[in-house]
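Progress against Task 2.4 (sequence-to-structure conversion) is shown through the following example record, which the project officer requested during the mid-term review.
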Amino acid sequence: MRFGSFNGEILRTRRLELGYSPTEVYERIRIPVSCIEAMERSNMAALPPACYTVGFLRSYCEFLGLEPGPLIRAYTAKRRPSHRVLLERSTHIYEWLAGARMSVAMTWVIVCAVFAFGWLAYYVVVQSQAEVDNVEASTVDMIEAPEPLSLERFGY
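Structure tokens generated for the chain above:
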């Protein structure tokens, strides 16, 4: 088997040699019929996530009496994207991150603007009103204090 070329026809041929239908395989090892058919057609899009598919593939190969290692390696190699696809994706990620950084920067600008506006409003409205209401206390020289009361007046 060539590296990176998953051929599910091997599974189908071996299953037919043993005389099993996909439904009988399901009844024996509990792999969904849709997954069995997708593996046999090499239809990667119809398979569940890789963690499940590798387990299904291992169980199916062992049930059919095949060595699971080469088929699992071929499956994972076919599932892994090529180097060119990774480069294209990384370019898109950098563009997305640049946009994300810009949105984070704009968020901080807006937060700072709201904070500055709130401080300005407080300073103009509250502080100016406090200055108007603030009356300085002054000493009054014209009022004289009364004389203290003597206790003799009360009979002591």
